[in-house]
Design a protein that fits this description.
The structure holds 2 protein chains of 2 kinds. Chain A is an all-beta fold. Chain A has strands at 4-7, 10-13, 19-25, 33-38, 45-49, 53-54, 62-67, 70-75, 85-90, 102-106. The N and C termini of chain A lie far apart (36 Å). The relative contact order of chain A is 0.34. In chain B, strands 2, 4, 5, 6, 9, 10 and 11 form a 7-stranded mixed sheet that branches. In chain B, strands 1-3-8-7 form a 4-stranded antiparallel sheet, with no helix packed on it. Chain B is mostly beta strands. In chain B, a hairpin with a 5-residue loop joins strand 4 and strand 5 (45-51). Classes of the chains: A mainly beta, B mainly beta. The interface between A and B is medium-sized, with 25 and 22 residues.
Chain lengths: 107, 121
């Protein structure tokens, strides 16, 4: 079974900080990886797909990189609206596995 | 606008059944693969099931295989999830989501607001 492991689980940061979240796959998923943002009580929102392609309407401070088994989501300058939980998800296999999530908190 | 609206959630006893619906609008529903994804209270996201645009290809997660059935009615722009033999660990918010491109290798670009399913005696 695919395993997707995110680190850290929780991240405390300040407005303006550069933030990086890592997602590791138990086997290669090529570039078939997405990142989602979820706020409390809301549905997830697609930020990045195919590892590094920004979804339409998503601010350019979000970026994604990586391929194979290691991926990163970077927020170049954290804004108040960015405090949320972030999930990676592989879609290489038919079983769409999500990471356990990274909560970005206010420091 | 492009929208997915789930319904059918509620409280059900262990061993019971429930049928969830997802009404799609604002796009050509029959062109898109669709999925159900769930989230237990305070937990992460878990993919449940996937159905191709015409309904001929279906996949399930291991935790629901043999108990849940996904289906769609393209004439009614609707997606369904029939849930049988429900267990306490099926308690979750259930989201329907659209695969952004045709085919299996696709992220989910549109999500509904979710419907809560509680399995408890």
């Amino acid at each position: 079974d695919f395993q997707m492991t995110q680190s850290p689980s929780t991240l405390s940061a300040s407005v303006g900080d550069r933030v990086t979240i890592t997602c590791r796959a138990s086997q290669s998923v090529s570039s078939w990886l997405a990142w989602y943002q979820q706020k409390p009580g809301k549905a997830p929102k697609l930020l990045i797909y195919k590892a590094s392609t920004l979804e339409s309407g998503v601010p350019s401070r979000f970026s994604g990189s990586g391929s194979g088994t290691e991926f990163t989501l970077t927020i170049s300058s954290l804004q108040p609206d960015d405090f949320a939980t972030y999930y990676c998800q592989q879609y290489d296999s038919y079983s769409r596995t999500f990471g356990q999530g990274t909560k970005v908190e206010i420091k | 606008q492009v929208q997915l609206v789930e319904s059918g959630g509620g409280l059900v006893q262990p061993g019971g059944s429930l049928r969830l619906s997802c009404a799609a609008s604002g796009f050509t529903f029959s062109d898109y693969y669709m999925s159900w994804i769930r989230q237990a209270p305070g937990k992460g996201l878990e993919w449940v099931s996937y159905i191709s645009s015409g309904g001929s290809t279906i996949y399930y997660g291991d935790s629901v295989k043999g108990r849940f059935t996904i289906s769609r009615d393209n004439a009614q722009n609707s997606l369904f999830l029939q849930m049988n033999s429900l267990r306490a660990d099926d308690t979750a918010v259930y989201y329907c989501a659209r695969a952004m491109v045709r085919g299996l290798k696709s992220a989910f670009d549109i999500w509904g607001q979710g419907t809560m399913v509680t399995v408890s005696s």
